[in-house]
Amino acid sequence: MSKKTVTILDTTGIQRYVFNSNRLRENIGASHLLHEATNDWITEILQDSYLKAEIIYVGGGNALLLFSSPDNAIEFTKKLSERILREASGINLVAAHREFDWENESLHDVIECLMQDDIEQAKQQRVPSSPLLGLGITATCNSTQLPAVDSSDRYIQYDAGEETDSYLISAETSQKLEAARERAEKRLQKIFEKIFDLNVYQFPKRTDQLGRSEGSISYAAVIHADGNGMGKRFREYGEKLAKQNLNDRAKSNQAYVDGIRELSKTVNEAGKNALREVAKFVKASIEEGKVKGELGQFSLKSSKKIIYLPFRPLVYGGDDVTFICDGRIGIELAAVYLDALKNQQIADGKSLYACAGVCVVKTHYPFARAYQLSEELCREAKKHVKDNQESDPDGFSALDWHLAASGLSGSISDIRNREYQIKVDKTVKHLQMRPVRLHQNDYDWRTWEGLTQVISHLQQSEGWEGRKNKVLALREVLRQGTREAVQDFLRNYAIKNQRLPVYPEQSGQAEQLASGGWLNKYCGYFDAIEAMEFYLALKGDKNA
Questions:
Q1: Distance between CA atoms of 497 and 461, rounded to whole angstroms?
Q2: 16 φ/ψ angles, rounded to the nearest 5 degrees
Q3: For 383-426, how does the pLDDT look when each residue is reduced to its tens digit (9 = 90+)?
Q4: In 83-177, which ranges are E strands?
Q5: Which residues, 6 or more positions from 406, have their beta carbon under 8 angstroms from its beta carbon?
Q6: pTM for this structure?
Q7: Surface-to-core class of residue 524, CB atoms within 10 Å of its CB (0-12 exposed, 13-18 middle, 19+ buried)
Q8: pLDDT category of residue 131 using cuts at 50, 70 and 90
Q9: Domains in the chain, start-ordered, CATH in brackets?
Q10: Given its phi and psi angles, is residue 507 left (phi above 0), alpha (psi -120 to 50 degrees) or beta?
């Protein structure tokens, strides 16, 4: 018999590790260390040792490997664990192994058991580490609350002319800052080197560098995007591959390895390509500005001859992506990303739909909380896709967002129940129309394209442009939750044709919305009015 061992590696507590600091540079370094630990270091250990193994896929905080023996699998895990402890303390690695007969057992079935049983059991049985705290050391790191071992001074000198504060750091934070110094920048620049002249443009290393208008409050957007049903998609593709060459199990297993590797590779490249499209969109917007360094209606940050781009990818590679940008362009860039992702070529031949959550907060708001809310918003968008599965079986991309002018209290459900839900004659109605699907269809008016059309009308059309008090008055009328209140408003303000800005036509729904502001239990205009203060439509062609 030909025995082999399949190994699954997974990481836990990624959110805490990457986003537990409010300093962007530390987030950058943490994200890069996570990438190295689950990509580069795996390859390096296998290349530099006697261990015989085949990489099926790596990325997204996990990996799937095939070893010639269980001893080799365990030895590899020890080597990787030791390197993580030495160079990326704080990353929690979980491993599960299973031996099987390559010539008589299905690799697909073995991996399914590993994923559903072994790796989950390993996560539950894992004993959390308890770092040694203090002893004679009393100073602590601001970010991790672990004992301080160094100062941040020597890690931030590479930003010429940048004003930075000095603070005490732990070993974990020191590793993150070291990774952010050059390694993270080189990886990011390699992806975008054909788009930007890196002697002119740089990605920001502080949230203050994302851009702001002089004298105004600065906002940042945290965007988290995730592919729809990717776990199920990989399983179904794996099942299809496993059914090939059933008379020769070894050949069938090899077809599974090759196919899953190619699918993982194309999904990984699709995420990068979609981010490149976002970068092209931002670049076109900058270059179409009348003044160099201007983006639409606000100035970009600059230092000497360097212009800081108003966005920066943080977690990327695969369908799971997180990036930050100036708050006013967050929803727009999320839509651009989702649109670009759908057009990528994937190994299984299907469109790559995804959902995104956008949380817009004041620049110095706790980053971990903003990221947590963006994840919740992404889940709300995924739920919207699932709820419409019967009418749209092929799926679609959707996005959700929250604009926080002040602080955030509670989950997104708590916030919406408290601030966006009203009762009219014992009927619960929703001021928000979010989440929205990305593209138009024949039956649903709640789309991103429709919403931006309404925002554009409110900002630029005759009778609405420059009439802020009129728009605010409409917002208060909408809070009453009735079509009659909106119709009274239209008459009292002598609105042309007694119609609000019109949505694209969907089976008569656009007319009902324009004449009364509400359709069933959803308001069609409250989101648009709220977004006007935060949303900035960029110049440039999305399809460039």
A1: 14
A2: -65, -40
A3: 999 999 888 888 999 999 998 876 667 788 888 889 899 998 88
A4: 92-101, 150-151, 168-169
A5: none
A6: 0.91
A7: buried
A8: low
A9: 3-125 (3.30.70.270), 188-418 (3.30.70.270), 420-544 (no CATH)
A10: left
